[in-house]
Amino acid sequence: MFRSSKPSSARFADRPEDFAKLGIQPGRIEAFEDGMRTQGGPGGYEWWYFDSHLSDGSSLVIVFFTKEMMNPGGKLAPLVTLSLDRPGQPTLFLETRVSPDAFSASRDRCDVRIGENTFCGDLHEYDIHFAHGEVSVDIKLTGQVPAWRPTSGHMFFGDHDEHVFAWLPSVPQGKVSLDLNIGGKKEHLEGVGYHDHNWGDVPMPKLINHWYWGRAQAGAYSIVASYIFAEKAYGGTGLPIFMLAKDGKVIADDHHKVRFHLEDEHMDEKSGKPVANVVVYEYEDGPERYRVSYRRSETIVNSQLIDRVSGFKRLLARPVGFNGSYLRFTGKVQLERFVNGELVEDVSDPGIWEMMYFGPVDPELASPGRTPVWGWRMPLCDRANLHGGKLGVTQFKDFAESSRRRIARDCCRGREDQFPACVRADQPVGTQDHAAACHN
C-alpha cells in the first residue's frame, strides 16, 4: 500500500512520559477523565456520546456537543442531537441549540447540562435526559464492562505532538433502561448501550482523513473497534483500536496485534464514498485468533458535512474540496474464535458502526487489505466508465495525477492492455486526445 514519503508523525500517546504529561495512569481510569477536558471556547471541541440497541429493534443515538466539531476555533456554542431509528419508520432527528449561559459541565466527573438536557455519570452509572418539543427521553445506563481506553486514550499528531485527538469509552457496554415520550405516547424500553467521550484542539479534517468505528455485543463478548487514517500531512498513518471483553472482563486490547481490512466495497451514490458491506478486524495472540466482521444490512444515516455549514463558509467549502460524509450502519456483527487455526466459536448479534470521511477520497490513503476492484485501484479506463464516460479533461487530469500511475500498475497487473494509451506510454496528461483516449 502506498504511503506518503513523509515520516509518520501520528501516534498513540503510550509512553511513560505521555501519561505523566497527561496526568493519568496506565490501566486506571478516573472519573475526572469523563469530565470536561477543554475550555469550551476557541481552541477545542468536545462531545459526550451515547447509543443503544433497544428491545423493539430500534436504535437511539444522543450526543452532547460544546460546539460543532468542525469549528474548534469558534466560541462555545452548545448543542444536543438525537437520532431515533425504528423498524419501518423514517429516522427521527432532533437538534437543540442553546446560548452559552445555558451550558455547564463539571471537570471532576461527567455532569453536563445543555439547557434542560443533562448527561451525568461516574464511569459506571449514567442518567441522560433529553427533551425537544413533544419528545422526551430519560435513560439509565449501567456499565457491564469497565471503563477502558486505548493506551492513554490520546493520539498525538505532529513531529512535536502539537495536536491531539482523544477518546474515552467510558462505558464500552452497558444495560439500558429508558422511558420514551413522543407526542404523549409513552413507552418503556430496554436494551444494550454504549457511552464515549471525545475531544481535540484543531479541526478534525486537518488531522484525520477518515475512520471506521463500531461497537457491538456478540454472545458473551463485547466489542469496540476502530481504524483511524491520519491525513497525508501526518504520514497517512493507520491507528488501529480494538477492545474485546468476555463476561465483563477485557481479554484483548493490544493495538499492535490488530489487522484490518474491507470486503465487498461499492461506491455510495449519495456521498461519493466507498462503502464496505463487510468490515473486518482480526486479532492474533499466540494460538488464539479472533475475527470480528461487521456485516452491513442497512445504512441508517447518510449525511454530508457541508449541510452543517452555512453562509459564506458554505460558499467557500466546495471549491476547496470540503465534501465530508458521515454514514452510520446497522447489521450483524459476527465474532469467530480460532485456536491453532480451528474454528471453535462463532457468535453474532446486531450492532451499530460508522464511517466518517472528512474530505475527498484520497488514493494515497487506501485502507489496508482493500481488494483492487473499484475507484482509484481500477485502471483509469474503468474509472472513467464509473463516471458514465463523462469524465472531463480537467477532472481526468486531476484524477490521473492523484492516482499515481505506479499504483494503478501495481494493483492491476495482468490488465495492462486495458490501460489508456497515455498511461501505458507514461505520457503527460493534459490534451484533449489523451482524455478522449481514456474514455475508450
The CATH homologous superfamily of the largest domain corresponds to AttH-like domain
The first-to-last residue Cα distance is: 28 Å
> Biggest sheet: strands, sense, closure?
13 strands, antiparallel
In CATH, the topology of the largest domain is named AttH-like fold
What order do the helices and strands follow? Answer: EHEEEEEEEEEEEEHEEEEEEEHEEHHHHH
Number of strands: 22
Q: Please tell me the total number of domains.
A: 3
Proportion of helical residues: 10-25%
Q: Can you tell me the overall shape?
A: globular
CATH class of the largest domain: Mainly Beta
CATH architecture of the largest domain: Beta Barrel
Coarse structural class: mainly beta
Work out the helix count.
8
Mean pLDDT: 82
Low-pLDDT segments: 1-5, 309-321, 370-440
What portion of residues belong to β-strands?
A: over 45%
Q: Rounded to an integer, what's the Rg over CA atoms?
A: 23 Å
